Amino acid sequence: MNLNLAAFERFAVRFQKGDIIFVEYEPGDSFYLIQSGRVQISKIMGNIEKTLDILYPGEIFGEMAILEEAPRSANAIALDNVKALEFNRANFEILMRGNPAIALKLLKLFTKRIYDQRRRFMILTLDDIQARVMDVFLMLAETDAGGQQEGEKREFKTTIDDIAHWAGLPTEKCREVINHFMNQRRIEVLPDKIIVKNLNEFARFVNSRRKNLAT
Amino acid sequence: MAPKAMTFKANSVIYFKGDISDKIYILKSGKVSMNSEDIETGQEVRDLIQTGEFFGVKSALGKYPREESAVVLSDAEVIQFTVPEFEQFVAQNTRVIMKMLKVFSNQLRRIHARVSSLLVTEEKTDPESGLFGIGQYYLNKKMYAQALYVFRRYLTYYPSGKFAKEAANNIAMAEQYAQKYGQGKGPEIGSSTPIPDKRPTGPTPVAVRAELSDVAKVYYNGVSLFGQNKFQEALDEFKKVAEQKEDEEYAVKALFEIGRCLFQLKQFDAAIRQFSGLIQKYPKLPDLPEALYYIGQCYEEKGEGDRALGFYKKILTMTTEADPVQRKVKKALRALEEKSK
Fold it and tell me: How would residue A150 be classed by pLDDT, with cut points 50, 70 and 90?
């Protein structure tokens, strides 16, 4: 991408390897475009810090800040020495006008965020909690870009905590549902992955519950 | 290939909900309705496309199934773009992207709010407790640098918050442990699971507050008061620390803090004298650039931008980009430049 970034050098910020860029719950009023180095996005869940994503030069993070000054939803930590452009509401328009490529990138990112949120919303509107848990697997299968497509059996690199998070259920409740599915031999839970035996069956069940909702 | 003009008869459909396609349209004339179902209630929603408006953008850009059907109500002329054609078109027309960004960010805000409203089961942490909790996490993991960042942030945002005192104490603890044991090392902190120390000569876990000398206690009480914006009270504490003779390390730190208090109390001349005196007495002070920065700030507050400039430039020669103070200085320099225009 041909980014005309030289003119924006004055908006550049630098972080040293290991530096915290921001942490969850901090008020946020700026977002970043990585120019060099990697940034780790993580979240502290209970007693562990879970890595959600690792971002590379050209990627944007913290973008929710320009929507509203909502607290940050995750930690951002410099994995290397990082150089990034810092955007805020004051310089946002100037930066965007001079840089359609960045604006377009942001537009695509918003597209993805809207889609993800809509999808999440659809999970949460299911009243039947079994259907909710199943729908989380369907969502993960949809977003698993280029993942294993063959057959009805699917593997997911996920944990019960993750599923509970997406399903909007307390972990214990989610564990009950998963245990129930395990007893029915519909899924297998391994330390590093969860195997769904027949994803199509999940899809049929979820669809039947969703139709009930619409009427 | 170029964008293609097309016409559609009334009652025809440009695309159906669920289709996957990379086409984006702009309406030139006629009437087109976006028919979709509300994702919560399942009720049908119809939105008329305005002339000149793009549609099908999100699903094409994201390669998602169409979320709505585009139904023609009266004969319509549209221009069809492929995604690359669209990208090329908007690249020369940032105004269009800006407008879309606004529309999308509104949509995102709305859907976000709706999702949050459904997340009743997820116990919600208020940001203040959440932030403090992250600091605790890092402190327990002996990640002192991270813990310091978070607790300092906490005190910045919530100077008189419900954990202000604890945060100040934890800062003291983290600073002390970082110095004494180093990042990632040191005794267990907190009450979670005390680990029995089997080595006979190993450091004995002791409550940190008991380890703090009386001088340090006064000093950190000052830090806590400063964090709560009680600058006069903080100043009084730091003065006590600066005057004592037992612990020079804290005395020097206090001299610096006195300058910061005076600055906050808007006693700029006194603050300048304080920092200048400190620098003269301790030319190798690690906080030297920071002290110079405060002197610059004081001159700026006094309306003497030129003198401030001198100090800022000096700081640039003695720091690297990695120093946080250099960022602050650059910001201050930009502000000065703006002003002089």
Answer: low
Strand partners, A50: A43
Which residues of chain A have a CB within 8 Å of the CB of B150?
A: 20, 23
CATH 2.60.120.10 residue spans of chain A: 7-122
**For testing contact with chain A, the best of B22, B100, B112, B125 (most A CBs within 10 A):** B112
Residues in chain B within 8 Å Cβ distance of A108: 61-62
Fold of A7-122: Jelly Rolls (2.60.120)
Q: Per CATH, is A129-209 categorized as 1.10.10.10?
A: yes
C-alpha distances in Å from residue B5, one per residue of B8, B26, B72, B87, B337: 10, 10, 15, 17, 51
Largest Cα–Cα distance in chain B?
Answer: 92
Tens of pLDDT, residues B268-314: 999 999 988 888 888 777 778 888 899 999 998 888 888 888 888 88
Phi, psi of B6 (to 5 degrees): -140, 155
Summarised one tens digit per residue, pLDDT across range A61-105 is 998 776 666 788 899 999 999 999 998 877 877 777 778 888 888
Compute the distance between CA of residue B341 and CA of residue B336 in angstroms, rounded to an integer: 9
Residues of A within 8 A of B95 (CB-CB) are: 97
Put simply, the answer to whether A103 touches B98 (Cβ < 8 Å) is: yes
User: Among residues of chain A, what percentage have pLDDT more than 90?
Assistant: 39
Distance (Å) from the alpha carbon of B195 to chain A's nearest alpha carbon: 16
Interface confidence (ipTM) of the complex: 0.78
Task: Quickly count: other Cβ atoms within 10 Å of residue A90's Cβ.
Answer: 10
